[in-house]
């Protein structure tokens, strides 16, 4: 089993830096019993000039605050202080590249009332690309994403990820690398922990906000499409439409950007190395490392 900490690992909790193996929590917390918590996944990179930089820290902590607001968890924290705490944790743990996990959780409360208090944890560990480096064999999941009328889908809430666990586990038990979930209307939504894009006829497509978590990596890919003059459209689409795509990819902070080999055993027609997804994958890597990127050079 992967070890996320050791005897020398530090974390941040409620304004203090503590050894991870000495930190405790209350077993009667609302978050433990009901999944009533929100979190972020953030990455730090050693950039081209040797500086350690957290990618889009402001956007992540803004979303953390917004997630709490959406599900009525008090947010008393200062995001600039939390960003500074992330850098301090990296320094204390001698990390140059890491995955950072802020978690806002709730104290003891066995009722189903909204929390009146909250606490915060920030930890970090070294973690490669979550879905690996190889193209993924993906299956359409039998599980759907929750109806937005039943939950605040745009909140990165801990309890929502039980749905992701079920979908991902189903895919792995059937011999696939990952799942793809539909929304309640039968349109493609997202992966268990990543957004999806596909390419057809020189254009990139992705589901619109509404039934998905509008990811920060997703927003970065959209920015890159605009900068590289790659046509992009946010639209609803079905599995049969997706199978007619030339190429497709997942993206997310943990996964970064990773191409799909096939969907339900149907292979995509364009070699990944020749796809717009590959261009965007390299552009994304250049962006997080603060390196220059020119599409023309990539295509040469």
UniProtKB/TrEMBL annotation:
Pfam families, A to Z: Aminotran_4
Catalytic activity, as annotated: L-isoleucine + 2-oxoglutarate = (S)-3-methyl-2-oxopentanoate + L-glutamate; L-valine + 2-oxoglutarate = 3-methyl-2-oxobutanoate + L-glutamate; L-leucine + 2-oxoglutarate = 4-methyl-2-oxopentanoate + L-glutamate
MF (Gene Ontology): L-isoleucine-2-oxoglutarate transaminase activity; L-leucine-2-oxoglutarate transaminase activity; L-valine-2-oxoglutarate transaminase activity
Enzyme class: transferase
UniProt KW GTP-binding keyword: no
Transmembrane segments: none
Free-text function comment from the UniProt entry: Acts on leucine, isoleucine and valine.
Homology family: Belongs to the class-IV pyridoxal-phosphate-dependent aminotransferase family.
Protein name stated in the entry: Branched-chain-amino-acid aminotransferase
Species annotation: Chitinophaga niastensis
Gene: ilvE
């Amino acid at each position: 089993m992967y070890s996320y900490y050791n005897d020398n690992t530090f974390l941040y909790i409620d304004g203090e830096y503590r050894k991870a193996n000495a930190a405790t929590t209350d077993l009667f917390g609302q978050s433990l019993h009901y999944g009533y918590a929100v979190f972020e996944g953030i990455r730090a990179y050693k950039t081209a000039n040797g500086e350690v930089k957290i990618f889009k820290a402001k956007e992540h902590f803004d979303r953390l605050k917004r997630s709490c607001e959406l599900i009525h968890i008090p947010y008393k924290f200062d995001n600039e202080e939390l960003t500074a705490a992330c850098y301090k944790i990296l320094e204390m743990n001698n990390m140059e590249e890491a995955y950072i996990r802020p978690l806002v959780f709730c104290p003891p409360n066995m009722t189903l009332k909204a929390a009146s208090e909250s606490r915060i944890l920030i930890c970090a560990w070294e973690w490669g690309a979550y879905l690996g480096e190889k193209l993924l064999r993906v299956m359409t999941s039998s599980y759907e994403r929750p109806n937005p009328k039943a939950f605040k889908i745009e909140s990165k809430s801990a309890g929502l990820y039980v749905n992701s666990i079920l979908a991902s586990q189903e895919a792995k038990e059937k011999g696939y690398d990952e799942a793809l979930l539909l929304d309640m209307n039968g349109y493609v939504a997202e992966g268990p922990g990543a957004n999806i894009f596909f390419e057809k006829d020189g254009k990139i497509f992705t589901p619109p906000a509404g039934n998905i978590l509008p990811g920060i990596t997703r927003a970065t890919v959209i920015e890159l499409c605009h900068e590289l003059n790659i046509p992009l459209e946010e639209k609803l689409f079905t599995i049969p439409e997706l199978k007619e795509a030339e190429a497709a990819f997942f993206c997310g902070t943990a996964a970064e950007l990773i191409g799909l080999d096939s969907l339900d055993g149907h292979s995509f027609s364009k070699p990944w190395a020749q796809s717009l997804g590959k261009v965007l994958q390299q552009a994304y890597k250049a962006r997080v490392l603060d390196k220059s990127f020119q599409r023309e050079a990539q295509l040469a």
